[in-house]
Amino acid sequence: MTISDFEHNIYPKLKEFLWRELSTDCSGHNHQHALRVVKNAKLILQQETADYVVVVTAALLHDVIDRKLFVDTDSQEQKVRQLLEELNFDDSSIEQILYIMKNISFSSGKSEFLKSMEAKIVCDADRLDALGALGIIRTIEYGAVHGRAFYSEENLSEVDDRVRFGEISDTSLSHFYEKLLKLEALMFTDKGRELAQQRTCFMREFLEQFYEEVNSRF
User: Fold this and answer.
1) Taking the chain (218 residues) in consecutive chunks of 10 residues, what is each chunk's mean pLDDT?
2) What is the pTM of this model?
């Protein structure tokens, strides 16, 4: 399958499938998120050697079998496999794509041991969308859908020890310290690290402004 054939004939059909599966999601994992992950992956691909079709397909579909979004992930995986077979992906590519989709999640605990450059690129691309302005928006969206407050008074009891107090409560603010601010150090690619550094800096500035405003005395 050439890149041109993929882009013109296959990719539009993958997007249609993605739309059916995730267009109604309000937790920060909808089709727009997937398209941004594809954009990030293409940026990284400019500096890395990897299978373009595998990377872009896995980046686009990565959340379609996410256990946070679907109860029956086995059924979702079968949907993806059937789709790729119908679109004439070869067996090796299908297995690579499914491997990536099942292993890049931070919560899976498997991403540290990714074995292929394709998987590392998609992992970095996904993590980049958890950082910066978009990462902040997605964190708030996910918390709202799951009834999670952004912060509690417990988070603010000692502003000088924000990391410790950020990690002890089930709030969206805690998520910054439990995961988001750690992602920069976990990037696999040079481009991923470069972009992660920029976006993490913005998130730290946001947190500084948040603490300043929430602790203001009038």
Assistant:
1) 90 94 75 94 96 97 83 86 96 96 77 87 96 94 88 65 54 88 94 97 94 74
2) 0.89
